[in-house]
Specification:
Layout: E1 32-37, E2 40-45, E3 50-53, E4 61-68, E5 74-81, E6 93-98, E7 105-108, E8 116-122, E9 128-138, E10 144-155, E11 162-166, E12 168-173, E13 179-185, E14 191-198, E15 205-206, E16 213-221, E17 228-234, E18 263-267, E19 275-276, E20 286-289, E21 295-300, E22 303-308, E23 314-318, E24 326-328
Antiparallel strand pairs: 1-2, 1-24, 2-3, 4-5, 5-6, 6-7, 8-9, 9-10, 10-11, 12-13, 13-14, 14-15, 16-17, 17-18, 18-19, 20-21, 21-22, 22-23
Length: 330
């Protein structure tokens, strides 16, 4: 007679590509996550395990990178509209809304074709927005040569931005207004590690030891400011997919299946107590803290997850994915 079937071994999370996790029937906590589906902002209710629309983008328009203010009264996100002129690359603008997603309004338009705002966040008091500005570089033959990356500050009135940090992306501010953390990049736009400095970006230092991670991104302070969560790839790894010289469109990268394995980590602002929370080998996950600071949600290639702040339990709450960022909504 055939041998009795045996259970498949548990995924270890050490290989390339995400570990196969069962999807939770219920969440251990309640709350709502703001994600992006088909270019629109959608709330995923952890209590009911279902989604509800917050804003609906028309065809050819895409919201992305939502982020709540520290007091949870305001929302900022980017918004891209496909240009009608095929020669115009367009770019993502900055939009703000009330904390419940109502009353959306333009804060600042992208400065020129191809330039785009990315990964916005609020200052500690919520009076201004910080965001990555990505600008393409072209030669005289209109061939793409590279790009510049910097962190800009835009006032609440949407006035002329000021540059805080050159060669940097993905800003996050501390709740007390003392610190700014971000991903430092080299002259080719490749990430080199996490840096932390004053709220104005001055006096920056490495947050984690140089060489600890091949890539690190998407930092966010905990609600009490005691820890910083981020996604990272450890050790040496193949370069991230890059744009080739002559590529006409710098706004969109190619999504590759089974990419390099990322994990979720936390660290104190002084660089101590570095801790790995997950072992899922997800593809470019984006984390966000719960309002209590007890849990972290993150969006990955194969679903939305919860991990407790101590890294003892990781749960995939749904196979639904976010097409452009995540923030804890309510």
């Amino acid at each position: 007679t055939p041998a009795a079937p045996t259970a498949a071994p548990a995924a270890s999370g050490t290989g390339i590509g995400p570990a196969i996790l069962p999807t939770a029937i219920s969440s251990p906590i309640t709350g709502k996550l703001l994600i992006v589906e088909n270019g629109s902002l959608v709330a995923f209710d952890l209590g009911g395990m279902k989604t509800e629309p917050i804003s609906t983008s028309p065809k050819g328009a895409y919201a992305a990178s939502p982020r709540m203010s520290h007091d949870r009264k305001k929302l900022v996100y980017t918004y891209y509209v496909v240009p009608t002129d095929p020669k115009d690359l367009g770019g993502s603008d900055l939009y703000v809304a009330d904390g419940n997603g109502a009353n959306p309004r333009l804060l600042r338009v992208h400065p020129n074709a191809g330039a785009t705002f990315e990964d916005p966040c609020w200052t500690s008091a919520g009076g201004a927005v910080l965001a990555t500005m990505r600008k393409p570089i072209y030669n005289s033959q209109n061939q793409y040569q590279g790009e510049t990356l910097s962190i800009l500050k835009v006032g609440g009135d949407g006035g002329e931005p000021t540059t805080l940090v050159e060669n940097a992306l993905g800003p996050a501010t501390s709740p007390d207004g003392k610190y700014l953390v971000y991903t430092q990049v080299d002259s080719k736009g490749q990430p080199t590690g996490l840096s932390i400095g004053s709220a104005s970006g001055q006096g920056a230092r490495d947050l984690v030891p140089t060489g600890q991670f091949s890539y690190a991104r998407a930092p966010e302070f905990s609600p009490d400011g005691s820890r910083i969560v981020f996604a990272a790839v450890t050790g040496s790894s193949a370069p991230l997919p890059g744009k080739k010289v002559g590529d006409r469109s710098p706004l969109f990268d190619v999504a590759e299946a089974h990419g390099i394995p990322w994990e979720i980590w936390t660290v104190k602002p002084d660089g101590s107590e570095l801790q790995q929370l997950t072992h899922e080998s997800e593809d470019t996950p984006t984390p966000t803290w719960s309002p209590s600071g007890d849990w972290i949600a993150f969006a990955g290639e194969i679903g939305l997850y919860l991990v407790d702040a101590g890294g003892k339990n990781t749960i995939r709450v749904t196979t639904a994915v976010s097409g452009g960022g995540i923030t804890w909504f309510a």
